[in-house]
Every structure is written in structure tokens, then in C-alpha cells.
TrEMBL record:
Gene3D superfamilies: NAD(P)-binding Rossmann-like Domain
Protein name per Swiss-Prot or TrEMBL: Glyoxylate reductase/hydroxypyruvate reductase
Organism, as annotated: Pararge aegeria aegeria
PANTHER family, alphabetized: 2-HYDROXYACID DEHYDROGENASE-RELATED, GLYOXYLATE REDUCTASE_HYDROXYPYRUVATE REDUCTASE
Domain D-isomer specific 2-hydroxyacid dehydrogenase NAD-binding intervals: 114-292
Entry similarity comment: Belongs to the D-isomer specific 2-hydroxyacid dehydrogenase family.
Record domain D-isomer specific 2-hydroxyacid dehydrogenase catalytic: where: 14-321
GO cellular component: cytosol
GTP-binding as UniProt keyword: no
Amino acid sequence: MSSARFQVYVTRSDMPECGIDLLKKECNVKTWKDASPVPREEFLKSIAGVDAIYCSLSDKIDEEVLDAAGPQLKVIGTISVGYDHIDLKECRKRGVKIGYTPNVLTDATAELTMALLLTTSRRLPEAQQDAKTGGWVSWAPKYMTGPGLNGATVGMVGYGRIGQAVARRVKSFNTAKILYFSRSERIEALEVGAIKVSFDELLKESDFVIVCAPLVPETKELFNKSAFEKMKRSAVFVNTSRGGLLDQDALIYALENNIIWGAGLDVTTPEPLPLDSPLFKLKNCVVLPHIGSATIGTRNTMSELTAANILAALHNAEMPAELK
Ligand SMILES: O=C(O)[C@H](O)CO
């Protein structure tokens, strides 16, 4: 084999093999030995001289990492559609390309968003717990009741690929109205008759508020105390995007004081959420461990796309999914 094989560092040992195998055909692949995020010190030490880094959303890619890798670094491939863990400006400054995984996880994430919404609104964890522990005494008319989607107004915050896929699914539940808040008017909204409104109007009108917007400086802590106070007391809040879109303490306050009805979170700050977080103690909150895209097929496709992005960049070819 020629000595010109590319050097790639992979930040955990359990990345789906199909992508790693693609890389191995052409590259020397060095992988962190454990199925957990590589410790920072180890990461910085291990990437000196590499051409590419295959990382996940748990790895912060900043100036220090780029310095530690060195000027030959060509590409960062992240197995995620979110890129808030990467310093885009710094990458751009150094000509380091970024590959990510849009589109391929849209359906899986939309499915999980619906599952979380229904799990929260229909109180499934609480109901199962009750059934298992003797709380199910008899059928009772008000027992385990919660808000339904039929006839409801649903507000989508963010109307990109995932937001649209959620809206299509929501529509099939016979909702009365779908509202959305987004920087620009979205032509795709016509498909489900979604109406663009201001953020405040969405908060005021919606029975369900679903967050599908990316975490960027403009959306950081968009949901603060004042936002929760503008929502209906009967509202269900669902976030499958990033924990940083909300002030978590403000959400805890809103849930503890019945300012909103309930919340379903697939993302938190930090991740994993510490076991002593008040969110775990609240009956009106469902917390999942960031599993939006976790179908077997989706994760395999994400891994292959991450590898394809890296290989294309290494060969100076067009990347299948470059973050521009
Ligand atoms: O950004 C992403 O890709 C999701 O949050 C995890 O798959």
C-alpha cells in the first residue's frame, strides 16, 4: 500500500461499521478505544497530523482542536445534522471543510418527535408506572387524561426539513391549524396549510409547541421565562432540536408552577442530564436521551454519509453533504 494513505481519526469506537469500513479502504483509521466520547486531552493528543476527523455532536471542534490537528487537516465529518459543536468561522478561516448528515435523518427524527409528543400529552410513562404499581384501581373518567391533537393548534418553531416532516405527520392527526415561526416564508408550508406567524402569536395560540429550529446565536434561549408565560396553561412543549434553545431553569419553573401543562424533551443542557435534575422528578415532563435519529437504518446511513463526505473532501471532489 502506498505511504500516501490519508490519516483519519474517529472519536469513538462504536460508530456504525459500514461508514468506518468505507474509510478503511482508503485511509489509515485511528479510533478512540471506547464506546464513549474521547476525553479531551486524549483527543487533542491523537489528532496531530491527521487529514480528517470523523466526530459526533459530543465532540467540541474549536480553535484548540484545529490547532492540535495541524494545517494539513482538510475535513471534519460529523455524524449529525446539527453543527453547533463546530466553530464554523474558525474552520472557514483555515479552509477546513465540514461534512454533515442532513436529509437522511429527517424521517426518523420526525417520527420520534411525534412519539415524544404523544408520550407526553397522553402521559404514557406515568400511566405505565401506575399500572405496574397498583395505581390502576378501576376505569375512571378523568384518570390519566391529557390534551389530544384532534382539533388542536400546533405551533412549529423552525420550518426546515424536520419541521416540515413533523408538520405532515401532525396534519394527519386532524389538527385544526398548523402555525410556524421561521425567518422566512416557506413555500413548503402550503402542503399542509401552515400559516407563518410571529413568535409571540405562535406562543399565544398553540396547544402544542414543537421546536425544530437549529441552535444558532439567534435561537439561543429563545424559550425563556417570558416565552413560557406567553403560552397557554394547557400547552404541551416538545423539543427535539437542541437543549440550548431554552432556558432550562425557566422551563422547570414553568412546569413546577403549571404555567404550561407539560414538556417532552429529547435534548437537554447538559447531555446527559444529571440524575438529580428536577426535570426527572416532574410528572409533567418526559425526558429522552437524545434519540431523535436512532433507527438502525438511519444511523447506518448517517455513518456512510459521514465517510462519503470525508472521502470526497480528501479527494478534492464535491462532498455529498457539505456545510457551506
Ligand atoms: O444533529 C443531529 O444529527 C441529531 O441531533 C442527532 O442525530
